[in-house]
Amino acid sequence: MKKVPAHILVIDDDPDVLHTARIVLKPHFSNITVESSPEQINYLLNHNHYDVILLDMNYTTGATSGKEGLFWLKNVINKNPGQQVIMMTAYGDIKLAVEAMKIGAADFVVKPWENEKLQATVYAAYNHHQSRQEVELLKSKNSGLTQLLGGEEAEIIGRSEAMRKIFVTIDKVAGTEANILILGDNGTGKEMVARALHNKSPRNDKVFIKVDLGSISENLFESELFGHKKGAFTDAREDRTGRFELADQGTLFLDEIGNLSLPMQAKLLTAIQHKEIVRVGGNESIPVDCRIIAATNSNLNQLVAAGKFREDLLYRINTVEVHLPRLSEREEDIPLLAEHFLQVYSQKYRKNNLTISKKALDFLSSFSWPGNIRELQHAIERAVIMADDSILQPTDFLLNEKVQTSGPPDSVNMDEVEKMTIEKAIVKNKGNISKAAKELGLGRTTIYRKMDKYGIRY
Ligand SMILES: Nc1ncnc2c1ncn2[C@@H]1O[C@H](COP(=O)(O)OP(=O)(O)OP(=O)(O)O)[C@@H](O)[C@H]1O
């Protein structure tokens, strides 16, 4: 019979017990160490790993209280929590056994033991130890994967009234199981908020799975979300787990939910309603427990009114709604975000000591940022890469196509920059002031006021 690759330590003051234990265990376990003095325990534990320890209850001649055994047991468990220890006593005292188990002993054998019973007890303790180690390994792999999938937690920057309200909402709802709908234009930070909700929820040690519903084709939708069985369709060469199953116990982030066709909406609704899915080509229902966070830049109420979005699905996903304002509506966050991205990119591109001039910050704050924070982020990244000087000026941010066509003048002031930006937008929109205003994120009155100020005539 093949020996189990385990190291067993037997501690007893009786040499006969040690001798017999060695003979009984040797045929089954690869490595047996015997020791007559419990005082050696710490030394032995410091220098070796033992899968199982057999520990006698009494050491002083005539002692029967088991106190010494319990003392050494505590010592072992304190030193190596999770260590498998089997207590041995000649007296079969149940009370002592219970006490030892409470302290953390794995099991108990009564001397004189039956050989098979001793082997079986050691074997069971060894197996238990192995499975615990496997569980720990899987746990650590899982948490590593979770971190990888969740990405590093980035700080949401903002001090505007609008952002403060959003921080309060995140804190209020993150810990609940409520489904959340995040609304906002492109680049306003919807995914960031979704991740923050997950990271602050009790599910934060489980996965955050994102599905970009805007980019999934109709025929791959079901397989992507619910998985498939091997052979379910031509390309299904093996079983595949869908996003719902992957997100089980965690959070499923359904991005661009406004882009789903009605048939896909129906399938999604069924899965959310019943909290179970059926893999394509399968016939068994698989329960899934995931918290749903959805996001869109569409106006879902309008889509519902137009018959393009199911009202019942909207009610399933919008228990709480979070509205992210455009960047132009939270102007006071712009300098903060600009400084934040400057830090990030100066580090990334190893350009230390870069600063943004007051004029440039004012310019950035007055810009409309149709692409919102993502656009600002890219503008700063670009400026950092291109910077020749250590102080970034408004001209460093003029690499934008709207104003780049004729190239920026060598030296400009803020008003010139704004004038040029408006002119370019009007030219680009073939003189349509409303369209130019919209592109710049300005109201019609504001654009006319600015045109008047700069003497722009059309
Ligand atoms: N408040 C913020 N603080 C710091 N960075 C932010 C903030 N909001 C957004 N960002 C950054 O801006 C970029 C766009 O954010 P995000 O992807 O969350 O936006 P989104 O609304 O989901 O965009 P889309 O609708 O295009 O998918 C990301 O790089 C994100 O890290």
Automatic annotation (TrEMBL):
Any one GO MF annotation of this record: sequence-specific DNA binding
Indicate the segments forming the Response regulatory domain, all copies.
7-126
Which residues belong to the signal peptide in this entry? none
Q: What keywords does the record list, in alphabetical order? A: ATP-binding, Nucleotide-binding, Phosphoprotein, Transcription, Transcription regulation
Q: Which PROSITE patterns match?
A: RESPONSE_REGULATORY (PS50110), SIGMA54_INTERACT_3 (PS00688), SIGMA54_INTERACT_4 (PS50045)
Q: Which of the residues bear the PTM 4-aspartylphosphate? A: 56
- Domain named Sigma-54 factor interaction is located at 156-385
Top-level taxonomic group: Bacteria
BP terms from Gene Ontology? phosphorelay signal transduction system; regulation of DNA-templated transcription
Entry annotated with the keyword Nucleotide-binding: yes
Name the PANTHER family for this protein. ALGINATE BIOSYNTHESIS TRANSCRIPTIONAL REGULATORY PROTEIN ALGB (PTHR32071:SF113), TRANSCRIPTIONAL REGULATORY PROTEIN (PTHR32071)
Protein name per the record: Two-component system response regulator
From which lineage does this chain's organism come? Answer: Bacteria, Pseudomonadati, Bacteroidota, Cytophagia, Cytophagales
